[in-house]
Amino acid sequence: MGTLNDLSIETGKFGAAAISDKTNAFNEMLMEIMAGGPKWYEVGAEKYRQMRAAGETPLPKAVYLDSAEEFAVPSRDAGRDVPCRIFRPQNGNPIRSVFLHIHGGGWVLQDEKSQDPMLQDIANRTGVLVLSVGYRLAPEHPFPAGPDDCYDVAEWLVDNATSKFGVPMGFVGGESAGGHLSMLVALHLLQHSVPRYADFRFKGLLLHFGCYSLVWTPRVYHFQKPRVLVLDRDLMEAFRDAFLPGMSDADKMHPSVSPLYADLESLQGKLPAALYTCGTEDCLLDDTMFMSSKWLMAGGEALVKIIPGAPHGYIMFPKTAEGSGADEGLDAVEQFVLSKLN
Q: Which residues, in sequence order, are bridge partners of residue 306?
């Protein structure tokens, strides 16, 4: 009788042979584009944001949709609101749930207006109302400012989503730093001292190439390309230094900073289902593999979608971009969300 394997991974997804010619060509194009402009820490965060808005950085400026609505949620600070952006289905579908979206950008870049086409597409495909959070950014507002804003919006939605939008919040998710903050939000509510928050249950988490350890997983050190493919260790460390200035490694490992170190076993029976996606040409691939494995070990449902050859940020590229993998990621989101709503 053969030995049974207690951990099964589709290893064929991770080899070079699994990467299509179109994806290799897309990545080559990205590396060439990324080499054509300054890094954000060379010009400063504020200046780089201005350049990005003006289309003066390697990646194109954001596309704003008329269908998006400005919205604001009260923060814990008197007189200060958290800016948000709302996307409703535009195809006649009824709203079935609220999706709290948290954008990426290394806790330093982008905002709630950065991903209009992708978020409108998700709303149309699934019937969710998407509410994207404009949390405060580092280095002007280091930890815990950004997470606190996300917690405030999540708690407000627990209390008010049904009365305001007709349906409760069902999902939270985001990309990169947004995946990190989404995981923190889920754990924040599960471990809350107030019963109405601790008893709240998400239908699902949507976690794309998140960073779950701020002391880095091995691939952050080992992932090397001849040119920067969206994200590398130098960029990661610049983002971290802005977000966690002066913080010791021991403090960076605290679960309120690095959710990979959270005690998930204490939350058995309470963890929501989670969709994890990541490309194999991403320095944060280990984060997805490690976090999803811990989720499963603690009894949670984890659906892991690996996109061969996809780079960091893949799902944020236009879904028409051949070789990006964005269409595969969005299809996985649609299938996962609809499965949890049906």
A: 278
* pLDDT, average across residues 220-240: 95
* CATH code for the domain of 176: 3.40.50.1820
DSSP state of 73: E
Whether residue 88 is contained in a domain is answered as: yes
Which range marks the domain in which residue 272 is found?
41-341
Place of tokens 């959270």: 262
DSSP symbol at 259: G
Query: To 10 degrees, the CA torsion angle through 213, 219, 220, 224?
Result: -170
CB contact at 8 A, 87 and 119: yes
Calpha distance 40→49 (Å, rounded): 8
Work out how many domains the chain is built from and give that number: 1
Q: Is pLDDT of 4 > 90?
A: no
pLDDT at 36 (0 to 100) = 84
Half-sphere exposure at residue 337, Cβ-oriented, CA atoms within 13 angstroms: 28
DSSP 8-state assignment for residue 57: S
Predicted confidence band of residue 2 (pLDDT cuts 50, 70, 90): low
Q: Tell me the DSSP string of 78-110.
A: TT-EEEEEEE--SSSPPP-EEEEEE--STTTS-
In Å, what is the CA distance from 229 to each residue of 16, 24, 188?
16, 11, 33
Q: What is the pLDDT of residues 169-211, one digit of tens each?
A: 999 999 999 999 999 999 999 999 999 999 999 999 999 999 9
pLDDT at position 226:
86
- Cβ atoms of 302 and 296 closer than 8 Å: yes
What average pLDDT is seen over the chain? 97
